[in-house]
């Protein structure tokens, strides 16, 4: 029973660490395109739990290993398929803002201002600054990005 408890505990640590810190296997170039650390951790947890349950049901040790290995393999496959399907639905990164056109919604200058950008993702308002004062309603183009703020000049 100790083997099942230890493997289950290690699996739980791997699973929790992968959920909190990101996939551990990708850190070591093991999981990229292969098996996820989350799937391996889930498989180890299922192995440990099903082994303990089988032994507590008074099955022979051989059957406990057979059941634990079978359920662990199934858990790894199911978890990996779920992870792969979820990662396939991730959004693409936003398009670059440099070169985007917009209109100032407030007077914008070295002290700051605001613009509404077009074509980035529909209409998007951003905090902005410019080297020279630009009045509200002027057409501008983004020339630089700093965090969530954009530097603009007249278009």
Give the ordered list of helices and strands. HHHHEEEEE
Instruction: Please work out how many helical segments DSSP would assign.
Output: 4
- What spatial order of strands do you see in the largest sheet? 1-2-3-5-4
What shape does the CA trace take? rod-shaped
Task: State the major sheet.
Answer: 5 strands, mixed, barrel
Give a brief rundown of this model.
The chain contains four helices and five strands; from the N terminus they run ααααβββββ.
Question: Can you give a write-up of this model?
Answer:
The chain has 155 residues and is α+β, with helices and mostly antiparallel strands. It has two domains: 2-88, no CATH class; 101-154, OB fold (Dihydrolipoamide Acetyltransferase, E2P) (Beta Barrel). It has four helices and five strands, in the order H-H-H-H-E-E-E-E-E. Strands 1-2-3-5-4 form a five-stranded mixed barrel. A hairpin with an 8-residue loop joins strand 1 and strand 2. The protein is rod-shaped and about 80 Å long. The termini are far apart.
Characteristics:
155 residues, alpha+beta, OB fold (Dihydrolipoamide Acetyltransferase, E2P), five-stranded mixed β-barrel, 4 helices, 46% helix
List the helices and strands and how they pair.
Blueprint (H helix, E strand, L loop, with lengths): L1 H20 L2 H4 L9 H20 L4 H28 L12 E4 L8 E6 L4 E7 L9 E8 L2 E6 L1
Helix pairs in contact: 1-3, 3-4
């Amino acid at each position: 029973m100790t083997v099942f408890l230890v493997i289950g505990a290690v699996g739980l640590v791997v699973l929790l660490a992968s959920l909190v810190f990101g996939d551990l296997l990708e850190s070591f170039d093991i999981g990229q395109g292969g098996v996820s650390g989350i799937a391996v951790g889930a498989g180890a947890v299922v192995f440990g739990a099903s082994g303990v349950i089988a032994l507590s049901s008074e099955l022979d040790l051989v059957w406990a290993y057979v059941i634990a290995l079978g359920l662990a393999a199934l858990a790894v496959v199911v978890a990996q398929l779920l992870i792969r399907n979820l990662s396939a639905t991730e959004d693409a990164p936003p398009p670059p803002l440099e070169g985007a056109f917009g209109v100032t919604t407030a007077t914008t200058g070295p002290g700051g201002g605001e613009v509404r950008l077009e074509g980035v993702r529909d209409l998007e308002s951003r905090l902005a600054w410019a080297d020279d004062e630009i009045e509200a309603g002027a057409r501008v183009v983004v020339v630089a990005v700093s965090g969530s703020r954009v530097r603009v000049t007249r278009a």
